Amino acid sequence: MKKIITLVVLITGVIFSTQAQKKKKDHKEKFTVAQQTELAVKKMTLQLDLSQDQQAKIKPILAEKYAFKKQLHEQRKKARENNEKPSLNEQFDIKNKMLDQKIAFKKEMKRILNNQQYERFEKMQARKEHGKKKRMKKGKHKKHQRSHHDAPDQE
């Protein structure tokens, strides 16, 4: 009897602690578009040795990029809250807009940066994409493991 009570108390504690952690994640504050832009410009300045003129030209481009990302995030958040999934055509439109935005961003960066800076910029982008793919792969692997371990044995 004592073991059962201890087990129930332990399970209840674990459940409440995981719920508290989920709530903390939901209320995570994000930087504003202006703050994200400012940080990104400074980071790029350090990595690419940008001039004042280059910084001034890049800032509005990054602001537009972050505003676009924030808009997409808000749309996804609303859809998730309403338990809506985008149709295949909506998914295509979103991905198409994202790729158009990336192409335009890359063209502008090529126009603003000199050859050496642009080469470094390309390497930075490649590393970022590689890291993103790696994290996505790791996340999918975790999901697969979780569902695999949670499934009852079918023998």
Describe this structure in words.
By secondary structure, the protein is mostly helical. It has one domain. It is 85% helix and 0% strand. It contains 5 helices and no strands. The longest helix is centred in the last third of the chain and has 36 residues, at 115-150. The protein is elongated, with a radius of gyration of 22 Å. The two termini are 33 Å apart. The model is unreliable at 146-155 (pLDDT under 50). Residues 73-93, 115-155 are annotated as: Disordered. Residues 119-128 have a biased composition (Basic and acidic residues). Residues 129-147 have a biased composition (Basic residues). This is DUF4890 domain-containing protein.
Main attributes of the structure:
155 residues; DUF4890 domain-containing protein; elongated; disordered C terminus; single chain; mainly alpha
Question: What order do the helices and strands come in, and which of them pair?
Answer:
Elements: H1 2-26, H2 33-48, H3 52-81, H4 88-112, H5 115-150
